Amino acid sequence: MMFVSKPHPDRRQQFRAVAVPTREIREPRSSVSSICNNCNKVAGEGAELRTCSGCKSVSYCNRGCQRAHWAKHKLHCGQAAAEGPGIKKLVANFKANRMLSHFLQVCLALEFDLHTSPSPDTPFFVNIDVGIEPCKITDFMNLFTHGAKFDKAIMEGMLQLDHLASERSGMPSRPLTATQRTVWEFAREESRKAGSGENAVVVVQFLNNCSQAITCTFVVTDEALEEAREAEPFVVGSALTGAKTTQPLNINTCLEFINTHIRSDVRNQLLLRADMRDSDKQLIRDAGRDKNAHAPQALLLKMKRESVYVSHPIVVNV
Predict the structure, then answer these.
(1) How do strand 59-60 and strand 2-5 relate by DSSP bridges?
(2) 159: which residues sit within 8 A by CB, 6+ positions away?
(3) What is the pLDDT of residues 121-143, one digit of tens each?
(4) CA distance 62 to 49
(5) Could you tell me which of 93, 162, 211, 287 has the fewest CB atoms within 10 Å of its CB?
(6) Residue 184 to residue 125: CA distance in whole angstroms
(7) pLDDT < 70 stretches in the chain
(8) Nearest CA to 99 among 21, 162, 27, 214?
(9) What pLDDT does residue 168 have?
(10) CB 101 within 8 A of CB 161
(11) pLDDT in the model for residue 279
């Protein structure tokens, strides 16, 4: 048996009403900081970073740093090259999207109580498990349910945020790494220069299946702090009945809003779609078998909280 489904009839209209135009996403993508993987020099500090020609996933400020780091990097370069660029460009496009970035900042404000205590000089850190899921919920359900019995040669995927965690929500306590500290200090100084010295800077690590981690920073703006204070609830419409309900504004509902908005982008206006890799498909299959590993369990947490997985109009074909 295979799954088929029908989307909400107003999905495209609702998406167009609030989506950020593609041209606005492309313009600020360079603001996502890169850092030399050997000496921790940040792009913009007099360094022009270049990516590894083999895997395109790490950067260096000169050949000397690349040679010095090769002993460590060669253990992963081949595998990273085989897997492709992964989530790096998707994360850059996500951060450049002012609406998605805003709602992630709301999540960060709620996670660290920044809307009540800004704490601008504290180096906050949060981990966000992300995945590339099929754009079609039916493909997701078939991978989840049927495992290796279901596959497609080409399957379009989209970025999705599975789980957010910090020391405050159960993540083991540990200090920032040297790289993370450098990135935070650079972003903190840049925010001061921009007149946002009273706003907290959060180091965010986007972790994809425990195999690729992209680190960047978010300055939690006054607008995000105000939205967290007001806590205006989300209005949710049912694709089955058309009935509307409200959900309180919290981290989980903000993540669901972000994921739903990305899912509604059928024309890739947000530049957050990519072909799925075998590892992306396997993560979903592992979750379907309740594999006791970090990434599948993070995906299962997402499935338990988001309505698309529990109330999507699915018809079973036998």
Answers:
(1) unpaired
(2) 87, 90, 91, 94, 130, 131, 132, 262, 272, 273, 274
(3) 999 999 999 999 999 999 999 99
(4) 7
(5) 211
(6) 9
(7) 1-18, 27-34, 44-47, 80-85, 237-242, 311-318
(8) 21
(9) 93
(10) no
(11) 92
CB atoms within 10 A of CB 262: 22
Amino acid at 264: S
Task: Note the pLDDT of residue 282.
Answer: 95
Whole-number pLDDT of residue 17: 65
Tally the residues of the chain: 318
Phi and psi at residue 221, in whole multiples of 5°?
A: -75, 165
Cα–Cα distance measured from residue 146 to residue 149, given in angstroms and rounded to the nearest whole number: 6
Give the tokens for residue 142. 């078939």
The amino acid that residue 212 corresponds to is Q
**pTM (2 decimals)?**
0.85
Best CA proximity match to 215, nearest among 85, 98, 87: 87
pLDDT at 144: 93
Q: What is the pLDDT of residue 103?
A: 97
Q: What is the DSSP letter of 276?
A: P
Phi, psi values for residue 59, rounded to 5°: -130, 155
Q: What type of residue is 293?
A: A
CB-based contact 92:29 (threshold 8 Å): yes
Burial 125-151 (b: 16+ CB within 10 A, else e): bbbbbbbbbbbbbbbbbbbbbebeebe
- Rounded CA-CA distance 222/220 in Å is 7
User: Distance between CA atoms of 157 and 132, rounded to whole angstroms?
Assistant: 6
